[in-house]
Specification:
396 residues, four-stranded antiparallel beta sheet, 15% strand, Aspartate Aminotransferase, domain 1, Aspartate Aminotransferase, domain 2, 2 domains, globular, 12 helices, single chain, binds pyridoxal-5'-phosphate, alpha/beta, seven-stranded mixed beta sheet
């Protein structure tokens, strides 16, 4: 069996790609290569590498066959020509920004972007002479009014981090094309299965593989996918900055991909079940889940996504004092309190949007909580939250 080149059905593709019985004596997975030194067969090859025309990576930092296998798989899954895997999701974002922006350039960044991306813009890009303008995620075609002569890149993250605003990507792409501006998207929430960045017209697609690709909360990684035209430029910056993943983590990412479709299908369904239940609760003002009918952004989600992950937020009717909220949070049995998401375990964190955003104002006054639904039984999860609501009521 050889790897599939056209993933007609993505479930089948993930289950069968990288099966190489003929190459590894029947072992069905790609072996882990751990490497710093990679030996050259002869002086001619050594000198060819020195001139930059060697067909394979010549140092561990540039990857091994394990890395290549992962990059090929991600590229096929994304419908891209190439992918590069990095040491974290943030490193993937930084790679894209560092590749395409230089001093004097202008960046249009969505106001609801992942916090560390924003900090990179406000501190590092600013120091390097790149100006960032934050735009409202609901801007749509009006983005054209914000494009300047020196605007080089529009950065999209849809739905937005923490509050899940869905962006009208085709409208933004149209405006950007008219003015020759590049479009990059952090598409972690949509996953490579449920969001088709290149079909929607993006030039660069980024994922934090730390989330559903890993699926087990045990390593960090990022991916950058692109068409042919942008690959060499990205590759050069990647090789000059050294944020490479280890062979072991590339292996774990390949393993995570095998079951991603199955995990996601269940998490999509169970996430919606919990979201629906929350929206029926008297304590809850709003549920911010793009796949929930009636929720903000649902129409665009329905048009542009083929599924949803299990990360969303909900707003309580009241702004609950810290001590009262602690009564709920500190005693949850199944939900852990911690960053990241996409793993097997459920998580809940309170969100404080104060002072984070500059282009938009959050519409709700009540306490905002972000939830990640893991692989537990949704009935158990809902019972856990219901007990938490009861504790809050008693404390109030
Ligand atoms: C987690 C996350 C990242 C960063 O990924 P790391 O692997 O943790 O560096 C980037 N973007 C989004 C939307 C995320 O949720």
């Amino acid at each position: 069996m050889s790897p599939k080149t056209t993933p007609t059905n993505k479930d089948t593709f993930l289950a069968t790609t990288a099966c190489y019985p003929e190459k590894h004596r029947g072992v069905v997975n790609m072996p882990v290569y751990r490497a710093s030194t990679i030996l050259f067969p002869n002086l001619a090859e050594f000198e060819a590498a020195d001139r930059g025309d060697c067909a394979y990576p010549v140092y561990g930092r540039y990857g091994t066959l394990t890395t290549e296998e992962l990059e090929k798989t991600i590229a096929l899954l994304e419908g891209a020509d190439h992918s590069i895997v990095t040491s974290s999701g943030l490193a993937a974002i930084v790679l894209v920004l560092m590749t395409f922006l230089k001093s004097g350039d202008h960046l249009l960044m969505v106001d609801t972007v992942y916090g560390p991306t924003r900090r990179f813009c406000d501190h590092e890009l600013k120091r390097l002479g790149v100006e960032t303008t934050y735009y409202d995620p609901t801007v749509g075609a009006d983005i054209s009014k914000l494009i300047r002569d020196n605007t080089r890149l529009i950065f999209i993250e849809s739905p937005g981090s923490l509050t899940f605003e869905v962006q009208d990507v085709p409208a933004i792409v149209k405006a950007a094309r008219a003015k020759g501006v590049l479009i990059a998207g952090d598409n972690t929430w949509g996953t490579p299965l449920y969001y088709h960045a290149f079909e929607l017209g993006m030039d660069i697609s980024i994922h934090s593989a730390t989330k559903y690709i890993s699926g087990h909360s045990d390593f960090l990684m990022g991916t950058v996918s692109c068409k042919k035209d942008h690959y060499m430029q990205l590759l050069r910056t990647f090789r000059n900055t050294g944020a490479c993943p280890s062979g072991d983590n590339c292996y774990l990412a390949l393993r995570g991909l095998r079951t991603m479709a199955v995990r996601l299908r269940q998490q999509y369904e169970h996430g919606l079940e919990v979201a629906r239940w929350l929206s029926s609760r008297p304590e809850v003002e709003a549920v911010l889940h793009p796949a929930l009918p009636g929720a903000p952004g649902h129409d665009i989600w329905k048009r542009d996504f083929s599924g949803a992950c299990s990360l969303f937020a909900f707003v309580l009717k009241e702004n609950v004092p810290q001590a009262t909220l602690a009564r709920m949070m500190d005693n949850l049995e199944l939900f852990g309190m911690g960053y990241s998401w996409g793993g097997f375990e459920s998580l809940m964190i309170p969100i404080n949007l104060n002072k984070i955003r500059t282009a938009t104002k959050f519409a709700y006054k009540g306490t905002l909580l972000r939830i990640h639904v893991g692989l537990e039984d949704p009935q158990d999860l809902m019972a856990d939250i219901a007990r938490g609501f009861d504790r809050m009521k008693k404390a109030a």
